[in-house]
Amino acid sequence: MNWIYLSLAGYFFLAFSFVLDKLLLKKRIPEPAVYAFYVAILSLFMILIFPFGVTWINWTFFSIAIISGVIFIWGLLFYYKAVKINEISKVAPLVGTISQITALFLSVVFLGNVFYSQDFIGLLFLIIGGFMVSFDLPLKYNGILKGFRFSVLGGILMAIAFSLFEYLYTYLTIINESNVFLNGFVWTRMGLVVGGLSLLLFKKYRTNIFKSIFGKKKHHKKRRNWKTLAIFGLNKISGGSSSILINMAVASGGVALVYGIGSMQFVFVLLMVSIASVKYKDVFEEKLYFWDWAQKIGAIIMITIGMLLITF
Predict the structure, then answer these.
(1) Looking at the domain assignment, is residue 131 inside a domain?
(2) Contact 82, 36 (CB under 8 A)
């Protein structure tokens, strides 16, 4: 049963990373494109790992790795846009739900997987849960689409990227590559770097990124002071720890079991932001009334049931 403890620890660190995303975007790095760029360029450090078993596969593998990395960074950009303008306890479950639905669609259309009645019921639960977590009830027209399109775009692009990541790992296994994880991970990180550089093609993003790096105004310097770097570093450590723990859990208990309790990350997010919003109301802006709690918990339960039905 060690996979349970590893999974819970992994999802806890992932939730903590989500909360730090909100803090950074609200107070420290307010432009989502700048934040996505920093995350992408950080992957350049993977070059240091090349001498320790990374090998050239072929041009097809390399091209897919780069494309998947670029898609992931743009998905991350839209996710950050949603996080900036909406409650993280709404955005994280919605993006997760959209990703799950997209991944299921891709597996049926491109991988030939069969769509059973249980999957259809699970899909309905995911859609209902996603609706419940996204919109305040009763519905109000002015706020109904607050960040919703960014969450949808982010979820779709991330699902495509993760599906391509999975394809690359499977390909490495089929060709009997000795370092499957290392080669898959490092080459896709190079794709993230290219994705970050692709943001510079757009004038608005390029201007914000350059000002963040070279700007001399007080708010520009704040984005690269030691406090910002410390929070950013803590965020990346938390995210990295989550990835390691979840992969260890998968190796111990299997993908279905680990991903089946994936909704625990949303429970942790809800608890963390509820505590943090007491002191940092200007950052998290979470609604803590009884019916808000009931709606979010109900949505998490619906999403959990949907994930379980699709996973098993």
Answers:
(1) yes
(2) no
